[in-house]
């Protein structure tokens, strides 16, 4: 059950100042609190005390509730700041001796309070509704508030429904991150404001009130007690879709050594196609008719060793189902998958257990506290292309390009051929992809890490540690590189201590 | 390590930064070992001085003794421009000195003070005097009129109305007020446990912050440290005068961008624990100055190095707090004041 106080600026403008008269960009929760207190103490709900008024007990309780419960969210409409510096000349009601006339009015120019133009309404929202008496008191009090900020920005305040655009971030750090840093009233604010009001409105002693030769208007001091800063930040955008939607996880009785994974993956692939039978979808077979657009990723078959931080800790074979596949194709594969029992390879058959389906974006465990999730290619990754001509090209660039090709829906680049490859690698770096310690694997027969390539292509299997930036969440399973569909380039989490990871990002 | 938290010092007020820098300079000058400075995390960030012996008693006594030494009749703040002329000799901005005898007398007396401080190896005093600057005899306009104030630090914001000046109207009374306290009262004021504004009589319009914050009651020990914080911001004197787009003869002040008496002040916020030497090297860096100009109109600040942000982030600077210097009161003797700060983040972490 949510609760919201909404302020509609009647003139489409908000004017307020903070500090030494700097324009206030938007009304803070503390300003709302102060306006409500003012309405409670001087409006129709106030009760008489001595020769003045004071807030009634119900209003006081409501304001105390506000202090204990800062708004969980605020809604900020579009605003445009008035940039010009205007000077406001006012007769201050004082007399100066300067000039010819010994009794001339003091006319002083001061920077005028600049405003912001507002399209829409401000709102302060709470996820939990306040207790009934508090909600009732606030609903009664809101219409009593004539303006927020200066009296030139009248508002209509009411308790109605509203959706926040920014939410309170309780873990924020003042000097990092983005968001609106707003003053928030905390316990004791009512008392501090009442004390300040008493001090400002009590008549001065006769001596202090005497006429002096030089008079100056003194603004009352700003009460800053019992205020804190709240960070209201816009919610994170939803994580981008994963390249593979989910993974079918088949338990294995014995782990498959890294060097025979491609061979075993090919065997699993063949067996699955045979199980699906005639008309096996192209997303599984990888065979497309000429002219049919090819998706970025197909069904991928990957192996997890017992050491991988996987589900259960046992060895497993994974069938990754691509996001772009049609429902019919996926249904065919899901029906065939449980019938996979024995896979025959030259080194001897191995049997697989009953599969379970795991969502791809919740596959790996959460990173440990104080660490950042990076990824290691397991066992090795193979570049998708030969090095493009014209300029430097490192293994790290090749890895970034492989990432960009997997997340082709997220990363786009212009150009053709080599220029496009370079642009893709650069765009991946722009999304925060960082490749560290990429080393080529010099290992007898590199052919065991790829299934089928063009005979002229140089195969360069490599190991690398990479960060995926904001491309995906820390728990997503994915594989990169030329062999990503058949047993290569699986990205296995590596949790680096945060300070080391930060050094690597530089 | 003992942490000494300036609990009332919040990062959007320039006084907080200056008080931290000044306090660190004072305690380090007194010989306290391994003094380091840092800012706490979270939304309620506070500056902290940390050292193995940074107990409230030790620090209170160091600051009290420091003030008491500057309140003695033969200390430099007590020196007058000339006999029978109470204005302070070491003020960087004084009322006009018309005669050349006046200038040579002023110079002789100033040099005498500097020689004595040099002999006694009073490094912090020398650092402060060098940072404050001096009345400039060298800055003239086209008509040959002298701009005496051009040799002064822009951080010295004492209004010059009614003959008031920085050392005589701020340093002297503050030194006396802090020296009159007990060590415990000094540390209480610094820690924010109490707020006594002896020289401003606790008035709501007290000018004790001297431009580093809006008028208001300010603890005198805190203000004393803040004024000594100027010592960490050296100046560079200039003679050249350019008429188009304003004069350029005034001293360039570390921690200040823009021309003349307005412009902006800036200070860094860092992660990790810094010594004052580290602070001085970063504060005086070109990169901090250029990063602090982020988003300001370029004709005001000149070209900006785009790699400055990264340079700072590598050195642990998380943000720069930038204060617009506002002018109040009359045009002839304006009161300058650093407004509430604006946080410019380097994006580190």
From TrEMBL, chain A:
Skewed-composition ranges (Basic and acidic residues): 208-218
Domain of life: Bacteria
Record InterPro entries: Cas_GSU0054 (IPR019089)
Region span, Disordered: 195-240
Name of the protein this chain belongs to: Type I-U CRISPR-associated protein Cas5/Cas6
Organism, as annotated: Phytohabitans rumicis
UniProtKB/TrEMBL annotation, chain B:
Highest taxon of the lineage: Bacteria
Protein name per UniProt: CRISPR-associated protein Csb3
Provenance organism: Phytohabitans rumicis
């Amino acid at each position: 059950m949510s609760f919201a106080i909404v302020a509609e600026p009647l003139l489409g403008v908000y004017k307020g100042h903070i500090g030494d008269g700097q324009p206030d960009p938007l009304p803070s929760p503390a300003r709302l609190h102060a306006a409500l207190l003012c309405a409670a103490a001087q409006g129709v709900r106030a009760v008489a005390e001595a020769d003045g008024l004071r807030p009634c007990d119900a209003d006081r309780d409501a304001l105390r509730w506000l202090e204990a419960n800062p708004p969980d969210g605020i809604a900020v409409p579009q605003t445009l700041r008035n940039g010009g510096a205007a000077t406001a000349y006012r007769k201050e009601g004082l007399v100066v001796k300067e000039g010819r006339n010994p009794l001339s009015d003091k006319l002083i120019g001061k920077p005028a309070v600049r405003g912001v133009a507002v399209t829409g309404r401000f709102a302060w929202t709470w996820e939990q509704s306040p207790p009934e008496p508090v909600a009732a008191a606030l609903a009664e009090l809101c219409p009593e508030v004539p303006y927020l900020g200066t009296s030139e920005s009248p508002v209509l305040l009411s308790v109605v429904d509203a959706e926040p655009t920014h939410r309170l971030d309780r873990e924020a750090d003042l000097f990092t991150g983005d968001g609106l840093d707003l003053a928030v009233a905390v316990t004791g604010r009512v008392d501090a404001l009442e004390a300040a009001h008493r001090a400002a409105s009590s008549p001065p002693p006769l001596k202090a009130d005497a006429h002096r030769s030089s008079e100056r208007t003194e603004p009352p001091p700003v009460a800053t007690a019992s205020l804190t800063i709240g960070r209201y930040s816009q919610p994170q955008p939803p994580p981008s879709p994963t390249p593979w939607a989910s993974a079918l996880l088949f338990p294995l009785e014995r782990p498959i050594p890294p060097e025979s994974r491609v061979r075993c993956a090919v065997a699993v692939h063949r067996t699955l196609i045979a199980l699906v039978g005639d008309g096996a979808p192209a997303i599984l077979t990888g065979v497309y008719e000429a002219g049919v657009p090819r998706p970025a990723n197909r069904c991928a078959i990957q192996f997890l060793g017992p050491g991988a931080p996987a589900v259960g800790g046992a060895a497993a074979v994974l069938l990754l189902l691509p996001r772009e596949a049609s429902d019919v194709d996926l249904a065919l594969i899901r029906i065939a998958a449980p019938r996979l029992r024995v896979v025959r390879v030259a080194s001897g058959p191995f049997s697989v257990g009953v599969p379970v389906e795991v969502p791809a974006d919740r596959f790996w465990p959460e990173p440990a506290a104080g660490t950042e999730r990076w990824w290691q290619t397991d066992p090795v990754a193979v570049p998708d292309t030969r090095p493009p001509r014209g300029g430097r090209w490192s293994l790290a660039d090749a890895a970034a390009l492989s990432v960009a090709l997997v997340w082709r829906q997220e990363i786009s680049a212009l150009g053709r051929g080599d220029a496009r490859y370079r642009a893709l690698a650069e765009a991946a770096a722009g999304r925060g992809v960082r490749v560290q310690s990429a080393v080529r694997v010099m290992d007898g027969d590199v052919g065991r890490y790829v299934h089928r390539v063009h005979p002229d292509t140089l195969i360069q299997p490599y190991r690398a540690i990479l960060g995926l930036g904001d491309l995906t969440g820390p728990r997503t399973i994915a594989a990169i590189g030329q062999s990503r569909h058949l047993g290569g380039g699986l990205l296995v989490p590596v949790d680096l201590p945060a300070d080391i990871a930060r050094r690597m990002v530089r | 390590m003992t942490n000494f938290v300036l609990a009332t010092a919040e990062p959007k007020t320039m006084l907080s930064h200056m008080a931290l820098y000044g306090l660190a300079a004072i305690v380090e000058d007194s010989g306290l070992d391994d003094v380091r400075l840092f800012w706490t995390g979270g939304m309620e960030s506070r500056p902290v001085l940390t050292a193995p012996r940074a107990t409230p008693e030790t620090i209170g006594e160091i600051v009290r003794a420091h003030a008491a030494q500057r309140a003695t009749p033969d200390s430099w703040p007590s020196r007058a421009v000339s006999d029978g002329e109470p204005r302070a000799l070491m003020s960087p901005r004084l009322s006009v000195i018309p005669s050349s005898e006046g200038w040579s007398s002023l110079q002789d007396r100033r040099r005498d003070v500097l020689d004595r401080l040099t002999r006694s190896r009073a490094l912090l005093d020398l650092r402060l005097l060098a940072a404050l600057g001096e009345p400039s005899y060298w800055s003239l306009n086209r008509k040959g009129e002298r701009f005496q104030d051009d040799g002064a630090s822009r951080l010295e914001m004492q209004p010059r109305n009614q003959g008031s000046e920085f050392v005589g109207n701020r340093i002297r009374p503050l030194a006396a007020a802090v020296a009159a306290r007990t060590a415990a009262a000094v540390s209480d004021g610094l820690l924010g446990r109490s707020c006594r504004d002896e020289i401003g009589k606790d008035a709501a319009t007290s000018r004790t912050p001297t431009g580093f914050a809006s008028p208001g009651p300010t603890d005198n020990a805190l203000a004393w440290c803040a004024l000594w914080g100027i010592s960490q911001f050296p100046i560079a004197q200039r003679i050249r005068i350019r008429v188009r787009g304003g004069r350029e003869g005034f001293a360039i002040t570390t921690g200040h961008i823009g021309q003349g008496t307005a412009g902006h002040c800036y200070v860094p916020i860092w992660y990790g624990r810094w010594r004052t030497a580290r602070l001085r090297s970063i504060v005086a860096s070109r990169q901090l100055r250029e990063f602090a100009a982020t988003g300001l109109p370029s004709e005001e600040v000149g070209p900006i190095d785009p790699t400055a942000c990264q340079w700072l982030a590598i050195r642990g600077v998380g943000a720069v707090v930038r204060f617009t210097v506002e002018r109040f009161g009359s045009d002839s003797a304006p009161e300058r004041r650093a407004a509430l700060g604006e946080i410019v983040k380097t994006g580190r972490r």
